[in-house]
Amino acid sequence: MLSLSAHSLALFVSIAEATAFLTAPGGLALQHALLARHSEAGCQLNALSTPAPIARVQHCRMQRSGASNLHASATATLDEEANKLPAYSRFGQIKIKGKAVSVPIGLCFLMGSALWAIILFPYVLLAYAYAKVFDNLRRRAVDFGVALWAKGAMFSLCYSPKLLGKENLPPKDEAVMYIPNHCSYLDIFTLSGTVPRAFKYLSKQEILQIPIIGWAMQMAGHIGIKRMDKRSQLEAFKAAVDALKKGNSVVTFAEGTRSPDGRLQTMKAGSIKMAVKAGVKVVPVSISNLYKWMPTSAITPLAFPRNVSVRIHPAMDTKGKTEEEILEYVFRSVNSGLPEHQKSLKGSN
Predict the structure, then answer these.
(1) Residue 191 CA from chain centroid, whole number
(2) Which of 61, 205, 264, 272 is the S-S candidate for 344 at Cβ 3.0 to 4.6 Å?
(3) What sign for the dihedral angle of Cα 251, 305, 218, 143?
(4) pTM score, two decimals?
(5) pLDDT < 50 regions, the chain
(6) What is the pLDDT of residue 58?
(7) Contact assessment for residue 188 and residue 240, using Cβ atoms and an 8 Å cutoff
(8) Do the Cβ atoms of 38 and 10 come closer than 8 Å?
(9) How far apart are CA 121 and CA 190, in angstroms?
(10) How far apart are alpha carbons 56 and 110 in whole angstroms?
(11) How many Å is the Cα radius of gyration of the chain?
């Protein structure tokens, strides 16, 4: 009777506390810890009233499985709430080959970004000619044109991200490796139009072949890579290291591809190896609240982005540190700057 009462009390406290936290706007990590703690406590209490050792083990496993399912359910609920789009986004939204397309928002974005690209292209041509003669290693004038185009593309979607941690930006003439999380096609526009620094992207080769803007990125010296081609990967690695040594900052998405659910994924060490090889610092960057506006399941933006922010974290010098130490610092920094619904569920790389 005593053990049953204790178990009932523990269960009641578990439900009460879990309900309070699940209805709160954040605290996912704390929720997981709380649920795990009460699950373990409940398991131990139940084990006292279960006579056979094997039965006790099986009972505990069943309870832990139930707690795990509760964690997953809580996470899914929070993600769904955080990634909910405004009601107007449903207007004119269709499916093409299983992917979402917003006809009005998509047209607004495509026409707006194309118009800005056409307007700026004559300037880019002149800037490229100037850079070839006076600044062939860095081509800052072309970078400026690409940044203007990114601002124009964001203007067409009526959003202006908030820049946080501006004091952590390195000097304009210092080459560094920027490593942000990657959750949306809009990441490149957001970084180029928000961060007041010039940098080159290590991006898919297909992007550099898009008419006008792809040509402009090639003129600026951005680096293309074919992800499934080993030779292309090696060439891109050498090109990125060379760009860094020439005084250009480089942006690499260490996750390798866009996150399928907006959460930070495992980071690969390639970008760290480039930074170490070139002898430059790494700068972690957190891009928040951008995933839901154009996720991997969409071909166009689905609504006008709101509450988007870019956080710059303190740089880390790569000298005298192992690749594992640097990668873990980058991962933890990026993760710490993300909202609860975008944080990694693992907590470490």
Answers:
(1) 11
(2) 264
(3) negative
(4) 0.79
(5) 1-48, 50, 57
(6) 56
(7) no
(8) yes
(9) 20
(10) 61
(11) 24
